[in-house]
Design brief:
The protein is α/β, with parallel strands linked by helices and 596 residues long. It contains 23 helices and seven strands. The protein has a seven-stranded mixed beta sheet, with helices on both faces. α5 runs antiparallel to α9.
């Protein structure tokens, strides 16, 4: 991470802070200041939005909470739909750090207007301030996410995203708690609560000036008032990169899901659990805590890569949790852990998708890709307000049924994601099974390329060789196995079909097998590594055969992928006891896999 204090543009800090304070501020990294800035911004967004909701509930009555929640949610999300794309263009054309600093300065001034809106008890004023806050957040969003690859190394993107998302939902937790708490201890004194948001806005402004200056990515970009056409062009460009388009829509669905859960929580708490509106706000804290925890867990599991295989599994967890909330809607002791689990699986679902959008997007279009994702994300938030209105006002259903409806929608989307990310899912599951089944020692891991797929040539001895290969590296893999090695067991055929294994006659006539050559080329172009299992133990002979193939040379030249020989050795456990040894031989087999 970059750790230096700004040199080119932080004139405000340099001119108006003592030397000792400047030295103290320079100890922290730019990522720390970015995380602090976005944390305080998210804190203010959630405090003020809840203050507006509680303010109108106090004026209009709890019986109108559905309408107030839907209206407030729609007003808050409208700027994200209108300005996200333009904000992405700004993030690519200008310094992302400067955009962040300007938005936080204006946010502080808007918070001052928020105090005046409550002082004069103006509905129009409160809604206007909420709209302006959301507008600044919409401008801030693309710069916040697209600046990350410029501040942290690529192999730390997942961890940084996990940390940032955790702090975002910590801000939601504290914001939800603080809004409710301030109103309780001040006897619903909205002006005092608004003064607190003003103080947080001032601190965020100072923190934003401490972020390292970043140069513009593309000064030639121009704003397009017809933002829908620009979104269409961005989506067309995203379709050229493997799995990127699905990740963008997947991230947007999470915002739809999370927004609906937040909006539905207060009516659910009032109707099913017989709590107050403020107590219902406390209940959403559990979801935010779960999301923060899940985000950290996803970052930990992903490590130095982006683990998209987590996404379908987390989607299934969300579905089950939503169904169970409806089933046990009258029991607070059951609802509390289930609400926590919805957030936990939500965090695990979201982090790989956000990380992949940032990593897979081309650097000169990253701001636009993030902005397009934000557009669909907040369109999803708007749809969540519409869905809440339809469920309660049109169909007359209670809030607990809303969880079954959102769970069913998540089930459908998870099925689509499972189909799209099937290779990622099977690789992740195979990695887990490999760690359970083998005690693996990896040799020559430095031979595995980090930024592109490779062609592995390996001697095939048993079906679980596929588990070893998938567990030893973090990229999707397509297997090609010689037909003469075909197993007679029916379950092995089904396993190979599940792993999308392709059977080939042998290495020798591969030159005359255009179907197989096309499959290898397409896999490599999609970023999927290829493993060719051979029966000949002399891998050098087999690799020489491939290198003499003109068609195979064309594949290597076109994709830039190298051939890597792989050697697998499996051993046995030391004798402990006859029964225990037999069990360990079955479930914990020592293995060594050597690359290169």
């Amino acid at each position: 991470m970059h750790t230096g204090f700004m040199i080119k543009t932080p004139t405000l800090i340099e001119n108006f802070t003592p030397k000792n304070l400047r030295n103290f501020l320079s100890r922290f990294s730019s990522f720390t200041y970015l995380n602090t800035t976005q944390f305080l911004g998210a804190l203010n967004d959630n405090i003020y939005k809840l203050l507006v909701i509680y303010f109108f509930i106090q004026l209009d009555g709890i019986e109108n909470s559905h309408r107030i929640l839907a209206t407030t949610g729609a007003i808050f999300v409208l700027p994200f739909i209108l300005f996200s794309v333009s904000s992405g263009t700004l993030a690519d054309r200008f310094s992302k750090r400067n955009i962040i600093a300007w938005t936080k300065t204006l946010e502080f001034l808007v918070m001052v207007l928020g105090v005046l809106a409550f002082y004069f008890e103006s509905k129009i004023g409160a809604y206007s301030v909420l709209f302006l806050m959301a507008t600044l957040s919409a401008v801030f969003g693309p710069s916040k996410y697209s600046i990350l690859p410029e501040l942290v190394p690529t192999d730390k993107i997942s961890k940084a995203n996990g940390l940032m998302t955790s702090f975002t939902f910590l801000a939601i937790i504290l914001g939800t708690f603080t809004a409710s708490f301030l109103l309780e201890i001040t006897n619903r004194h909205f002006i005092v609560a608004a003064l607190f948001t003003t103080l947080m806005g001032f601190i965020a402004m100072i923190s934003s000036f401490c972020i390292e200056y970043t140069p513009p990515a593309d000064k030639t970009k121009r704003l397009n008032v017809f933002f829908l056409s620009e979104i269409a062009l961005t989506l067309k460009s995203a379709a050229n990169y493997p799995s990127l388009l699905t990740a963008m829509f997947g991230s947007a669905f999470f915002m739809f899901l999370g927004a609906f859960v937040q909006l539905n929580m207060i009516p659910f708490a009032v109707q099913s659990l017989h709590l107050s509106d403020v107590q219902g706000g406390y209940l959403f804290l559990l979801t935010a805590i779960g999301i923060g925890s899940g985000s950290m867990l996803a970052g930990k599991i992903s490590g130095k890569t982006v683990e998209l295989g987590l996404v379908p599994l987390a989607g299934i967890g969300i579905v089950i949790s939503c169904y169970l909330i409806d089933l046990f809607s009258g029991h607070l002791a059951a609802v509390v852990p289930l609400v926590l689990f919805v957030g936990l699986f939500g965090g695990i679902y979201e982090i790989p998708l956000d990380s992949y959008v940032q990593v897979a997007s081309p650097s000169n279009q990253r701001g636009q890709m993030v902005a397009a994702t934000n557009f669909f994300s907040f369109f999803g938030v708007l749809c969540s307000s519409v869905l809440l209105y339809l469920i309660t006002e049109v169909f007359g259903l209670n809030a607990d049924k809303g969880f079954t409806i959102i769970g069913s929608m998540t089930l459908l989307w998870t099925a689509i994601l499972t189909f799209q990310y099937f290779d990622y899912l099977t690789r992740f599951i195979a990695m887990i099974l490999s760690k359970l089944h083998f005690q693996t020692r990896i040799i020559g891991a430095e031979s595995i390329p980090n930024d592109m797929p490779a062609i592995y040539i390996c001697t095939h001895t048993a079906w679980n060789d596929t588990l070893l290969l998938l567990g030893a590296q973090r990229r999707r893999m397509r297997f090609f196995i010689e037909e003469e090695q075909e197993h007679r067991f029916r379950w092995v055929y089904r396993l190979y079909r599940l792993l999308r294994v392709m059977l080939i006659p042998s290495i020798e006539p591969l030159e005359n097998n255009p179907i197989c050559l096309t499959a290898i080329k397409n896999a490599l172009k999609k970023g999927i590594s290829v493993c060719i299992f051979v029966s000949n133990e002399n891998l050098k002979t087999e690799i020489d055969t491939l290198n003499r193939s003109y068609s195979f040379q064309d594949i290597q030249d076109e994709t830039g992928c190298s051939i890597i020989p792989v050697y697998i050795e499996k051993g046995e456990k030391h004798q402990i006891s006859p029964l225990l040894t037999r069990l360990l031989k079955k479930f914990r087999v020592p293995a060594a896999i050597s690359f290169g």
